[in-house]
Amino acid sequence: MAVRPGDGEPRLSGRAPAAGEKAGTEPEPAVVPDQETGGTPARVPDVAIRRLPVYLRALEELRAEDHEIVSSADLAARTGYSSEQIRKDLAYFGAFGTRGVGYRIDVLVDRLRHILGLDREVPIALVGAGHLGTALARYNRTRHRDVRIVAIFDSDPARIGERIEGLEIQPADAMEAVIRRLGIRLAVIAVPAGAAQAVARRLVAAGVEAILNFAPVTLQVPPGVVVQNIDLTLELQSLAYYIRPEPATG
Asked: Whole-model pTM?
């Protein structure tokens, strides 16, 4: 069975779903204008938006391999989604391809990056420079140029002033001022569960509108703020279901 990256739904404010349980609260569908005519806006399901980066990654891989045209079947083979699903998702944003020919990769890459807001650098704040936070910062700073960590905060005085891939760890007390000065609207929380809610509250007060939360706790945030939870323990526990030992036979 093909694994579909990014197929999970974001878990928002409210009760966190248990492992294997579908999130009960979804964000309002995004509203985008018709890309071709500027006419009636289309309402785009959140799950469709979450699939776009998967398509973008596949397209960039194909472009790196010197491909110029791609079909929805080719994208399906790369992503694990069906051709029909891919065409439906792209159709929310207008007409991109030519029937019987396919999509021009360079054009589709540019359009998807524009739709996702990745045609400019998206600055990110990281709160928590422990083992997980440090690993996230190193990976992001060396691999990404569009969504990029530009500020790291920690409450441990021993870590203040250290650098991770050239970026200095700043005291947590400076968080609001730095976030406002840099215009940061996206943040990552990688702190212990007991500190996460207070951090989220401060981030929102500073103007952050989207949070990727690695703390194993449900965050309470105002309407309009999107929280996506990644709980590694829950994910591993749910995967354990698939490797249950075979029943003993007599």
From this structure: 0.73
Whole-number Cα distances in Å, 149 to 72, 179, 235: 33, 12, 25
Percent of the chain at pLDDT exceeding 90? 68
Tokens 């001022």 sit on residue: 177
The amino acid occupying position 160 is: I
pLDDT at 143: 83
CB atoms under 10 Å from CB of 199, counted, come to: 24
**With helix as H, strand as E and coil as C, how does 192-211 read?**
CHHHHHHHHHHHHHCCCCEE
Domains delineated in the chain:
30-115 (1.10.10.10), 122-236 (3.40.50.720)
Query: Sorting pLDDT into bands at 50, 70 and 90, what band is 28?
Result: low
Contacts of 113 (CB under 8 A, 6+ apart): 56, 119, 146
End-to-end Cα spacing for the chain = 31
Other CB atoms within 10 Å distance of the CB of residue 178: 17
DSSP, res 3: -
- At 22 the pLDDT is 37
> If phi over 0 gives left and psi between -120 and 50 gives alpha, with beta otherwise, what is residue 64?
alpha
Q: What is the mean pLDDT of residues 208-233?
A: 95
Query: Which of 32-36, 142-146, 202-206, 232-236 is predicted least confidently?
Result: 32-36
For 73, other C-beta atoms within 10 Å of its C-beta total 12
How many CA atoms lie within 13 Å of 133's alpha carbon, on the beta-carbon side?
27
Check the CA dihedral 71-75-78-83 and report its sign. Answer: negative
Q: When comparing pLDDT for 25 and 71, which is higher?
A: 71
**227 vs 196: CA distance, rounded Å:** 12
